[in-house]
Design goal:
Elements lengths: L4 E4 L3 H15 L6 E4 L3 H9 L3 H17 L4 E3 L9 H4 L7 E2 L1 H11 L5 E4 L2 H4 L13 H14 L7 H16 L5 E4 L17 E3 H13 L1
Parallel strand pairs: 1-2, 1-3, 3-4, 5-6, 6-7
């Protein structure tokens, strides 16, 4: 029997892309899936206060509800809030697939050696991803985070936002010597892909969905 996937969701667009990828790539007989998310604003208010223990408690509450619903393991299609996972992982009723480990395994499998990191300002300033990943400049960090939080999480996809991410990725390539870019806000793959990126992409959203499919099978 396949395992039941529990999705601890945060923002709608990233969670929806992850869910849809599991369903589409898993085919008509994809694994059973349950998803839970509190109001997005609950997460944002805690993040704005730098209350990562509080963020972890929200994740744990979702985990407990998903466990009661029959899930066998958990995924969270949100890179930023993974920095709260260490606060609650030992108390979790179910095991987690960690998005950064999934991305790292793919990077290693494909032989990438110098990876640029894109995501919210909280994510790129955190230790969710290894220190050797190349971070954006301060200016790039603030603008990419603004695009994510003001536009992408709200389903707004503007050509100017695409162009800015392409510019940042291009600088990773030309000035930092990167050979790949990790898309580590789960909404970024909605506007950036191998088709329009100056560097090969590590799509954290779809990679997590595929890892969940593999584990569930």
């Amino acid at each position: 029997m396949t395992q039941h996937i529990g999705i601890v969701a945060c923002s709608a667009e990233g969670a929806a892309l992850c869910y849809r990828t599991i369903c589409m790539e898993g085919g008509r007989d994809h694994p059973e899936i349950s998803m839970h998310t509190p109001p997005f604003g609950d997460y944002v208010r805690l993040i704005d206060r730098d209350d990562w223990k509080g963020v972890g408690e929200l994740m744990l509450a979702s985990a407990e509800k998903l466990a009661r619903n029959g899930a066998d393991f958990l995924i969270c299609p949100d890179n930023t809030i993974h920095q709260a996972l260490p606060y609650i992982e030992e108390r979790s009723p179910l095991p987690w697939l960690h998005i950064a480990r999934v991305v790292g395994a793919e990077a290693e499998a494909r032989g990438f050696r110098r990876i640029g990191l894109t995501g919210t300002r909280w994510l790129v300033l955190s230790s969710v991803y290894p220190a050797e990943y190349v971070r954006p400049t301060d200016e790039e960090r603030e603008e990419t985070s603004r695009i994510i939080m003001d536009e992408l999480v709200n389903g707004v996809f503007r050509p100017e936002g695409v162009a800015y991410f392409q510019k940042v990725i291009g600088r990773f390539k030309e000035e930092e010597g990167c050979d790949a870019v990790a898309l580590c806000c789960t909404e970024i793959p909605l506007i950036i892909s191998d088709a329009n990126s100056p560097l090969p992409v590590l799509d954290s959203t779809r990679l997590l969905a595929r890892a969940a499919l593999q584990r569930a099978s």
